[in-house]
Design a protein that fits this description.
Layout: H1 13-25, H2 28-31, H3 36-53, E1 58-61, E2 64-67, H4 69-92, E3 98-103, H5 105-116, E4 127-132, H6 135-144, E5 149-152, E6 162-169, E7 171-176, H7 183-191, E8 197-200, H8 206-210, E9 218-220, H9 223-230, E10 236-240, E11 252-255, H10 258-261, E12 265-271, H11 273-278, H12 281-298
Parallel strand pairs: 3-4, 3-5, 8-9, 8-10
Antiparallel strand pairs: 1-2, 5-12, 6-12, 7-10, 7-11
Helix pairs in contact: 1-3, 1-4, 5-12
Length: 299
């Protein structure tokens, strides 16, 4: 069945690992940590793979390199294969797995960390690594199997990725009283694109579609940063309802904007079903995460 694969030399786990590391780093120099000996080794190993498969696997891109279409496919197959071997090894050694979860900074702090640091981790069990990752990067890395799970804002992911709804949320406009505006005046200023406003990049393309022509006074990475900016009491902020100051606040007031109040946002847990086939234990982790995060979002 595999006679042709073993008929000639040039294919090995070390060579496949070199391809994965160069692809992930974006260049041979970075993958080799600028070590000239390792650079030479990686170059030779990838050339041997190209000779074995008789196709180009990497190509130059500016000062770095990138995988060709064939290189990406071989990397995907190699990663899948190596993950299977790694899971088998952990099972033989009775070792627990570490799961990597990508999400926005706001979701990690507000929902993911409380769940992962809960009582379930006081017992021996799997470990977790959280990574602040934008939605498009989460999708790519789930395909590459360099993330085990991700939390995204849309269920419209490319196949074979799958999702499960965790919960819904809304945005609220909050204005510091220090701006000396009534709710009516603040609403008018917002509609006229004159209200000094901080926006988070976590909103993605939504802000451009919903607020065309609005030039915010400040753009920051996350809603966490927007909340900090709001607390300076000199700029208004659009914040998720679960992260807003609340009606009992003495320093800010909420401005009701009908078209804004009607907007519904969602969080979905996303995963690659290939991961579940490679590691049946991941099924329990997926179900636990989905249930725990959904419960946390309703608190």
């Amino acid at each position: 069945m595999f006679e042709r694969i073993f008929a000639e030399s040039g294919l090995s786990l070390d060579r496949l690992r070199a391809l994965l590391e160069v692809g992930a780093a974006g260049s041979i120099v970075k993958a080799a940590s600028a070590d000239p000996v390792r650079q030479s080794q990686y170059s030779r190993q990838i050339k041997e793979l190209e000779d074995f498969f008789r196709t180009r696997l990497i190509e130059r891109q500016g000062k770095g390199t990138r995988l060709t279409a064939s290189g990406k496919e071989l990397a995907r197959i190699s990663r899948f294969f190596m993950m299977g071997l790694s899971n088998f090894q952990r099972g033989c050694l009775a070792e627990e797995q570490t799961f990597r979860i990508g999400a926005s900074a706001t979701f990690i702090q507000q929902f993911l960390l409380p769940v992962l640091s809960g009582t379930s981790l006081k017992k021996a069990g799997p470990g977790y690594v959280t990574e602040i990752t934008p939605d498009e990067e989460i999708e790519r890395r789930l395909h590459d199997l360099t993330l085990d799970f991700g939390v995204v804002g849309s269920a419209a992911l490319s196949r074979p990725l799958q999702t499960k709804l965790l919960g819904e949320w809304k945005l609220e406009l909050w204005v510091p009283k220090g701006l000396r505006l009534s709710e009516t005046k603040a609403a008018q200023a917002f509609e006229q694109r004159r209200l000094p406003l901080v926006l988070a990049r976590e909103l993605g393309d939504w802000s451009a579609a919903f607020l065309p022509g609005y030039e915010p006074s400040l753009v920051c990475d996350s809603h966490l940063d927007s909340r900090i900016a709001l607390e300076g009491e000199e700029i208004a902020a659009l914040l998720p309802r679960f992260f807003a100051p609340g009606n009992a606040s003495r320093s800010f007031f909420r401005v009701h904007i009908p078209k804004l109040d009607s907007q519904v946002f969602r969080f979905y847990l996303a995963w690659n079903p290939r991961l579940l086939r490679l590691n049946p234990h991941a099924v329990r982790r997926r179900d636990w995460l989905a249930d725990s995060l959904s419960e946390q979002m309703t608190v």
